Amino acid sequence: METEIKIIECPRDAMQGWHDFIPTKQKIAYQNVLLQCGFDVLDFGSFVSPKAIPQMRDTAEVLNGLELSQTQTKLLAIIANERGALDALQFEEIDFLGYPFSISEEFQKRNTNATIIESLHRVEEIQSLCVNNKKKLVVYLSMGFGNPYGEKWHPDLVSQWSERLNKEMGIEILALSDTIGCANPAIVQSLFSQIIPENLSVEFGAHLHTLLENATTLIEAAYESGCRRFDGAMKGFGGCPMAKDDLTGNMPTERIISFLEGKGIRNQIVKDRLLEAESMTTTIFI
Q1: Which of 144, 114, 131 is nearest to 172 (CA)?
Q2: Mean pLDDT of 55-70
Q3: pLDDT band at residue 267 using 50, 70 and 90 as cut-offs
Q4: Which of 5, 89, 156, 245 is the most exposed place for a label (fewest CB within 10 A)?
Q5: 58 burial via Cβ count (<10 Å: 0-12, 13-18, 19+)
């Protein structure tokens, strides 16, 4: 029996590209149920430009409505620059800041309006802010499993950036992100099998966007290759609005839990609260 598995629930990723604005009260009610489900981390919102991601303009209001006294779940907020980091750092309740660092120049510009070099400087500044404020920075390696823009992609490129971010910036949590749902089990297994032994001081995660029929095989490939941190969203809703027009869904959280249970791997998920949250998605994502 293993106990080190971490499940990160990502309602922010599910909601951020949704076509209609989800009322703040509805977001709060949903996330308060998610906080009772036993997830390790809740990726609850983002401090980014409301022009870029209008769905997240009420993140501070949502945070103020969350019931945190009866949960062990930690909070993570996504930021895209130093200004967003400073906004997030105003809230003691937030434990992690998440920054999307792309190894694709084209996607980095689309997602954060910065080049890779500019983004690297942002990581350095944000990491310094996190250290000084006793927060942890999670860096997402966007386009970690492939590149749709005709740019160079190779597992060694992912490995090189992982090592650089860890050794030079002190980043201890890296989530490999399949931003466009292009990964297959062979790539996932090859990549995690390579980079985890090379970077033993790094906690690697899998943030996979996928079609439903591919979900379980990707989870298995990541797990069998040593990954023990998995991001998901209830029912697989959401995706990255900056990647392309038709959103590839998130990894369904239910598939992660089913896989772990099938392997006899212990988790802390509270089933009745999970079913309640699943039921609530039918009135939120309509």
Answers
A1: 131
A2: 97
A3: confident
A4: 245
A5: buried
Cα(159)–Cα(283) distance, integer angstroms: 41
User: Residue with structure tokens 């909601």?
Assistant: 15
Summarised one tens digit per residue, pLDDT across range 3-15 is 479 999 999 999 9
Residue whose tokens read 């907020």: 77
What's the total number of domains in the chain? 1
Residue 234 near residue 278, CB atoms below 8 Å: yes
- In-domain check, residue 63: yes
What pLDDT band is residue 110 in, cutting at 50, 70 and 90?
confident
Per-residue pLDDT of 209-251, as tens digits, reads 988 889 999 999 999 999 999 999 999 998 654 445 455 689 9
**Structural domain that includes position 197:** 6-284
- Listed residue (270, 271, 252, 280) closest to 38, CA to CA: 270
Would you state the structure tokens that stand for residue 59, as one six-digit string?
A: 């993140």
Q: pTM value?
A: 0.94
Q: What's the CA gap between 70 and 41, in Å, rounded?
A: 14
**At 230, which CATH number?**
3.20.20.70
Whether the Cβ atoms of residue 239 and residue 207 lie closer than 8 Å to each other: no
Select from 164, 153, 165 the least CA-distant residue to 191.
153
**Tell me, what's the pLDDT at 1?**
42
**Structure tokens that stand for 146 in this block:** 């492939």
